[in-house]
Specification:
The complex is a heterodimer of chains A (about 260) and B (about 260).
Chain A (H helix, E strand, L loop, with lengths): L1 H16 L1 H25 L5 E2 L2 E2 H18 L3 H11 L2 H5 L5 H30 L9 H26 L7 H15 L11 H9 L7 H8 L5 H29 L9
Antiparallel strand pairs in A: 1-2
Helix pairs in contact in A: 1-6, 2-3, 2-6, 3-6, 3-10, 4-7, 6-7, 7-8, 7-10, 7-11
Chain B lengths: L1 H21 L3 H25 L11 H21 L6 H7 L12 H7 L6 H18 L6 H27 L1 H4 L3 H11 L11 H10 L7 H8 L6 H27 L6
The chains are: A mainly alpha (about 260), B mainly alpha (about 260).
């Protein structure tokens, strides 16, 4: 376990080097929150409750979604694929460390940087500038755990996309497509309740909603009955476990095509 | 005039070679184009979902939003296709490879942008044109030759606004080395340009109209075609905004180029 702590620490410190960047990211997020605030104010112009959500709930969902987005955005698909394409992956492969766990913990280090430098300031802004009321309940307690599961699932998608570099060098297109699908179908940009009924049913059985919709609903509706909360968490854990296993299998397949001719 | 034809001829010669080279990677072209297609339509998809619950957004209906969005997609295409190399400016500056652009008897910005021609951006342009035609048929917009010319002029100017914003943001690399944060902020702001500016008030409207004038990328100029009878004077200011901003961005670029000292290696 000790070696993985060293990895987290290393990634955390690398992330902290680019401090100037945080200011711009926070600034960008502040503008995004402002735009979202005005957009949703316009949407709720004529009514108080829409699709079962009040304005406060919908805005909290979207705003918190943007904070989660920044938290999970570690660009790991980009660096994993770059490592594979330029062959530097070999340096990691000869280490006595499992590659998936190594990338997972590196990622965790970056997530911690994001958490301290961007997500927490954003959350503070949300309370101080936009005056949102934060509901409390059993779901609030489950939220941190759900967020960790969301991280694992998001990491699996990044890892899978990164590994595709074993087969193609077109990683720009793959990463952008992955990002778009996740953003649109997970509830990160618009609450899933607003989707057409039929689409909602499909989206609920896909894994994307577990990255945003699940933790965001736990937070905005923390007073749901226990069975509902437990059900959501169970689905999330199932996906996390399943995707870890699937990407492990995929790695074992993909690594076979690797040929590195000297250094 | 002679100078312009010379540059045009050069541009076609360089790009023809570039495209031939890129075409070796056919799978990459297809995958990138698909990625481009989905990502450029994502925000429109979100609008479509939202309009399942509302009929108007700040007085604009869905088809009008499609028109504004299509205008936006076309207006950002020249940036994507012709000026794409500016994304890499920060690498060239920090690694010192930027020095080579000083050594040719050509305009430096021309030489710099000519090194890349983004084929996948053509997907975005095509999708934008299809959507624009579709929306204007649905909205029953009457096109005369004069209005088509006006449309082309507005698109030209709107694309200059977009180019100016990205060029200025990437030129930050000349002074702060890693310009990625500035660039990604500019990129993020750009995504708000198809939003109806009328939903904003106070500080935000001032910000998007005068400070970082992304309102001029799509919303203000497309008003000329959607609601000609109630256009704000701002819409007619848009051609000037584009030219003025581009001149400013070019000035920033010149300052940066003149102050760059290389990396010493």
């Amino acid at each position: 376990m000790k070696k993985y702590f060293a990895i987290i620490r290393g990634a955390f410190m690398v992330g902290m080097v680019y401090r100037l960047g945080f200011i711009f990211t926070i600034l960008g997020n502040l503008v995004y929150l402002g735009v979202a605030y005005y957009l949703w104010t316009s949407i709720y112009e004529t009514t108080n409750v829409m699709r079962g959500l009040t304005f406060n709930e919908a805005f909290l969902y979207i705003a918190l979604g943007s904070a989660v987005f920044i938290l999970l955005k570690t660009y790991s698909d980009w660096w994993i694929s770059r490592e594979i394409i330029d062959g530097n992956i070999i340096i990691d492969l000869i280490k006595p460390i499992d590659y998936q766990l190594m990338t997972l913990f590196t990622n965790l280090g970056f997530v911690l940087t994001n958490l301290i430098a961007i997500t927490i300031p954003t959350a503070l802004m949300l309370v101080l500038v936009f005056n949102v009321t934060i509901p409390y309940g059993a779901g609030t307690l489950l939220f941190p755990f759900s967020l960790i599961m969301a991280f694992v699932i998001s990491y699996c998608f990044d890892y899978f996309t990164g590994l595709l570099a074993f087969y193609t060098e077109s990683t720009w297109g793959l990463s952008i497509t992955k990002d778009t699908i996740i953003l649109v179908f997970s509830g990160a940009l618009v609450p899933l309740q607003f989707f057409p009924e039929g689409m909602q049913k499909v989206l609920m059985v896909l894994p994307f909603q577990t990255m945003y919709h699940t933790p965001l609903m736990l937070f905005t509706r923390p007073d749901q009955p226990w069975e509902a909360l437990a059900g959501m968490l169970l689905v999330q854990c199932g996906w996390a476990l399943g995707l870890i296993l699937l990407t492990r299998l995929f790695y074992l397949q993909a690594i076979k095509v690797l040929r590195i001719s000297g250094g | 005039m002679h100078r312009i034809t010379r540059y045009l001829r050069l541009y076609f010669l360089i790009e023809a070679q570039y495209i031939k080279a890129r075409m070796q990677y056919r799978a990459d072209f297809i995958i990138s184009s698909i990625g481009m297609f989905f990502s450029s339509l994502a925000t429109l998809g979100i609008f479509w979902i939202l309009f399942g619950s509302i009929t108007e957004l700040a007085g604009w209906n869905f088809m009008e939003m499609v028109f504004i969005y299509a205008f936006y997609m076309i207006a950002i295409s020249p940036m994507q296709i012709i000026f794409d190399h500016f994304w890499q400016l920060r690498y060239h500056v920090t690694e010192g490879t930027f020095l080579k652009y000083y050594f040719r008897p050509l305009n430096m910005m021309f030489y710099y942008i000519s090194e890349m021609f983004d084929l996948k951006g053509l997907t975005q342009l095509a999708a934008g044109i299809v959507l624009l035609v579709y929306a204007s048929i649905q909205l029953n917009i009457q096109w005369t030759i004069a209005r088509v010319m006006l449309l082309l002029a507005s698109l030209f100017s709107a694309s200059l606004v977009q180019i100016a914003v990205v060029v200025s943001a990437s030129c930050a690399a000349f002074w702060v080395m890693n310009s990625w944060p500035v660039l990604s902020l500019a990129w993020k702001l750009r995504e708000f340009s198809p939003y109806p500016m009328s939903i904003f008030d106070g500080a935000f409207r001032v910000l998007f109209t005068y400070v970082i004038p992304i309102g001029f990328v799509a919303f203000y100029p497309s008003q000329i075609f959607l609601r000609p009878e109630q256009v704000s004077p701002l819409a007619y200011a848009s051609p000037l905004v584009g030219i003025g901003l581009f001149a400013l961005a070019y000035r920033i670029w010149t300052l940066g180029v003149n102050s760059y000292t290389g990396t010493g290696s």
